[in-house]
Amino acid sequence: MKEFKKEAKNERLEDAYVKLINIINILPDEAPVDILNTIDFPPNYSHENYTAVINTLQYQIEDDLKDESKNQIEIASKRACIEELEKNEKRYLDAKDMYESFKKNEKAIIDLCASVGVKNAFVELDVLINNAFVAGNKQFKAENGSNIKDELKMRLVEEMRNDLGYDFI
C-alpha cells in the first residue's frame, strides 16, 4: 500500500515537473535587459512594459534619421533591438500564461510533495522571472558568459530527478 502511494505521488509530481520544465523551455533565453544592453543609451525596461520601450526606441530612430550625423549602424541596431524585443515579448507572454496556470493548478502538489531542493529552485525561478521581466533589473547572461536561466533549469531538473528517484549514470 505504501509503495502504491509513493508511486502515485511520483506520478503526480512527474506530471507537474514536466509542465514546469516545458514552461522554462518557452521562457526567452534573454531578459529584456540583455537585449537592450546591445545598444547605446537604451531606454529603461520595467513592469513588463515592452510597448513603452519599443515606442521609445522608435522615437529614437525617428530622431536619429533626422540627424545626419547619426551612424546608420546605430539605427540598424535599434531596429534589430525592436525585432528581438517583439519576439522576446511573445515568448514571455506565452510562458507567463502557462506559468500562472501552473501556479494556480499545480503549485499545491509541489508544496505538498516536492523535496526542499525542488521547492528552493522553484522559488529561485519565481524570483528570476520577477527580476528579469517585471522589475527589469536582471540579466540572464552572467559575466562569465553563461546563461543564468539555463543554469537554474539544470539545477531544477537535477533536483527533480533526485526527488523522483531517477538514477542516471
Task: Give the SSE map.
Layout: H1 2-26, H2 32-36, H3 50-66, H4 72-105, H5 107-113, H6 116-134, H7 148-164
Short description:
The protein has helices at residues 2-26, 32-36, 50-66, 72-105, 107-113, 116-134, 148-164.
Description:
The protein is an all-alpha fold and 169 residues long. The protein contains 7 helices and no strands. It has helices spanning 2-26, 32-36, 50-66, 72-105, 107-113, 116-134, 148-164. 22% of the residues are buried.
Number of strands: 0
User: Percent of residues in beta strands?
Assistant: under 5%
The helix/strand order is: HHHHHHH
Rg, rounded, reads 20 Å
Broad structural category: mainly alpha
Number of helices: 7
Terminal-residue CA separation: 30 Å
| Helix content class | over 70%
Would you tell me the overall average pLDDT?
91
Q: Biggest sheet: strands, sense, closure? A: none
Q: Could you say which overall geometry the principal axes of the C-alpha atoms support? A: elongated
Low-confidence stretches: none
